[in-house]
Design goal:
Layout (H helix, E strand, L loop, with lengths): L12 H22 L9 H8 L3 H8 L2 H8 L3 H7 L7 H16 L15 H19 L7 H21 L3 H4 L3 H16 L8
Helix pairs in contact: 1-2, 1-4, 6-8, 6-10, 7-8, 8-10
Length: 201
Amino acid sequence: MRAMTTPSDRSPAPARRDAEATRTAILKAARFLLARHAHADITLKAVADRAGVSPPLILKYFGNKDALFARVMSFDTDADDLLEAPLEDLGRHMVRHVLSSQRERGADPLLRIAFAPLHGDHGDVLRANFRAQVTERLATRLTGPDTGLRAELAVAALVGLGVMYGIARGPHLRGTDADEIADRYGPAVQAQLTPGGPPPR
């Protein structure tokens, strides 16, 4: 006789996966809107419509609009991926990561900072997070003089790349293989990370 399966026997993994997919969709929608509209003009309904969920579901996962956008204004997770390479290869990796994020996810890991002026007091939060979680974190990995300046110059090159690709939509940049762009542009970024060091591999 076949054993009866009780609810407690069933794996909750699919539900967890669905919940994580929903959270991801909500965050992606909020990031998309934050890059195009002032924080004050973005409603939970607009986020919900873009994410394909209901506004009450956003409240269930994030509590309120401020809590949702506090997550969106954090660069921690993006910085983890952006900086995940040995220092000697980091310039090329970061260029490749910016391009692959734009092409594969339609989202740039850094470009939200370009829209900080749209967001009033919330823009100050965005700037503070960006400095602490991206440029200052990168600076701690560098050695030698002027680590803070060099980190900011390296990140500036990446933000410029993101602007040209995602906002100006430069046709030559968008039509060129990401590895070729990384080979050409990565050394310019790497020069700030390891000045005077051997060329990147």
